[in-house]
Structures are given as C-alpha cells and as structure tokens.
Specification:
The complex is a heterodimer of chains A (170) and B (170). Chain A is of the alpha+beta class and 170 residues long. Helices cover 52% and strands 11% of the residues of chain A. The chains are: A alpha+beta (170), B alpha+beta (170).
C-alpha cells in the first residue's frame, strides 16, 4: 500500500483518533494515579468500557467522545484540512503525527546568553508551534524571537529537556 | 537456507525507520542487491530487480495474499506502525514487546483484528521478519525466530549492531 493510499484510507483516521483517546486516558491515569476501577467510577462507566478504550478499540458516538473529553477537562478540538494539501505537506515533511488531542503545547524560550528561561503562555506557544509545523521539518529546529528588546532562541526539539531541568532547578 | 536483504516500507514514515525483510535464494548476490535497493530508495524509487520486477519484501507478499476482508485491518497495522515510528505510545494490545528472556535482539508483535506482524529491533528502527494470522501464532513464532536467527547469522559481525535489551519502553 502506498503512503497516499494509506492516508486516504478511513482506517488510518479511525486509528489516529482511537490512539488519541488512548493517550488521553493514559495521561489522565498517570496524572491522577488512578487504576482502571477508579477511572471507571470517575467516568461513570463500566470497567469493560475503560478496558475497551485502553485497548485502542474506542468507536462510540460523537457525543460520548465529547463527554469523555470534558471528563478529562479537555476540549475536543476537531479540525478538517484539505486532504490533497495534507498529502503534499506529508511528502514535504511538514506534517506532524502528534495530534493536538495528545500533545502538550508548551514552549520554553532561552535568552541568547543562556541565563534566562521564559515559559510562554499557551496561546503564544500554540502560534509558535503551528508556525513550526507549517514551515519546518522535524529535525531539531530553532528560531529566534524578540521580546522586550531581548533576543530569545527557541529550540522546539529540546523543550522537554529544558522543562525538566527548569523544574528541577527551582 | 536463504540470503536476505532489507527494503523500506513506503507507507510508513517517521523518526524511526521501518524496514522489511526480503528473502532471496542462496545463490543471490545479496550485497550487490542491497546496494541497489539503497540507491533506488535514496532516489525515492521503488526497488526493482534488473529484470524490472519489483523487489517484494515479506510485508508486500503478505499484503498481496490478504483477502479483501482483511484489508482494513492491514491499513490499521500500517497506521500503528506510523505511530510507533513517530515514538507515539500505542496500546499493548496493538503493539508489544515479545522478547524472550536473555534474548539480546528485541522482538515485537503488531496485531490488529486477526492479523499479526513480527519484527525485530534494528539500529534506529524495526525490521519486519514475518507476518501471519491470529490462529497460527505458535507456528508463526517458530518461523519468525528461525528467520530471525538466519538473518542475524548471515550478517557480517563487524556490521552487526543490534538494539540491546533495555528495561525502558519501546
């Protein structure tokens, strides 16, 4: 099967969404240190339903997906894009497989003298990340921004490591 | 006994490389063919033999053999491969480590519906060795491990660098 054929296949998108739901639940379980029983109680569903979601077999109504999302304090943002453009962007390396439902959009900005770190608010982070997805490949990418006349460098691939070291340094 | 080369999987793209085994007769010039495959793939061409027949790997052959009712599950497996190739977490019911104790080279299994695909870990990726079905797993594991052994024994020792057994995740 060619890649374009796969991207045009309904199963590709069903699995992507099912996996997003799986990651949503896994992240919630980790954050809250819940087991499956506690999660089922929290959602008001059976353990079997929880197991089904955790095995990647979620395939319920849109209203159930919305209820689930809100139960986890998440907004289920759905975006439709032109598939021909998506396929072209995929060929050009401009598509990220990280679906907004399961990615944490956070950006840390380091000053040019590496002495300061700023944690950007989520809206600014979203704009920067959208810009990155649109214009860059997924190798290590950095760009510069100027805030209050100071130059800051953003390295998208390193932000997770920086986030950890910043937290540890506090 | 066989000789082996590897080729890419056009539908799978990500940070990790996914390849598939190509099983050749013992008389084949595997090194020459591997160079030709690598050169053609570098140019985004479909690897072909000198007689212009497409070089088919184990996954290609498997896909061709599938009845229509399994095509959707196959697309699902390719999608999970894409997710894993992009370092996304996926349910264990879809992709799991099946490495026996004390085995150096890691073994994995993808499953979706009645389909099963068996792989080993290679530097920066995975290599598909064998494919099968749910009700044939005992025989498939025997075949998989036999091919794995033949493939690894056929590699020149100084070029062999395998993904060593780790405690952390895939």
């Amino acid at each position: 099967m060619k890649r374009e054929e796969l991207i045009r296949n309904r199963e590709y998108w069903i699995v992507q969404i099912q996996n997003s739901v799986y990651n949503l639940i896994e992240n919630f379980l980790k954050e809250r240190k819940f087991n499956k029983t506690q999660l089922a109680d929290h959602l008001g569903v059976t353990k079997g339903y929880v197991s089904q979601m955790l095995s990647g077999e979620y395939n319920h109504k849109i209203s159930k997906l919305v209820d689930l999302s809100l139960s986890f304090n998440k907004a289920p943002i759905v975006t439709f894009v032109d598939i021909d453009q998506y396929i072209q962007d995929d060929k050009d390396g401009k598509v990220s497989i990280e679906h907004p439902l399961n990615s944490t959009i956070e950006c840390f900005v380091i000053s040019s003298d590496s002495k300061s770190v700023l944690r950007l608010d989520s809206k600014f982070s979203e704009i920067l990340m959208a810009n990155w997805y649109k214009n860059s490949s997924h190798s290590s990418v950095s760009t510069s921004v100027y805030l209050d006349e100071n130059a800051y460098s953003i390295n998208y691939s390193q932000y997770n490591k920086l986030a950890q070291s910043t937290e540890n340094g506090k | 006994m066989h000789k082996f080369v590897t080729k890419g999987i056009e539908a799978v793209k990500g940070k990790q490389q996914f390849k598939q085994l190509v099983i050749l007769p013992v008389t084949a010039d595997a090194e020459k063919l591997q160079r030709e495959i690598d050169a053609q793939e570098e140019k985004n061409e479909t690897p072909k033999f000198e007689d212009s027949n497409t070089i088919e790997g184990v996954l290609d052959v498997y896909e061709k053999s599938l009845e229509d009712k399994y095509k959707s599950s196959f697309a699902g497996i390719l999608t999970y491969m894409n997710l894993v190739a992009n370092l996304q977490k996926v349910p264990e019911k879809k992709f799991k480590d099946v490495t026996p104790d004390k085995e150096d080279v890691k073994e994995y299994e993808f499953k979706n519906g009645k389909l099963r695909v068996y792989l080993i870990g290679i530097p920066n990726g995975k290599l598909i060795i064998h494919c099968g079905y749910k009700n044939e797993q005992p025989e498939d594991f025997v075949k998989f491990r036999s091919l794995k052994k033949q493939y690894l024994e056929g590699k020149v020792p100084k070029k062999v660098q395998h993904e060593k057994r780790r405690i952390d995740t895939k």
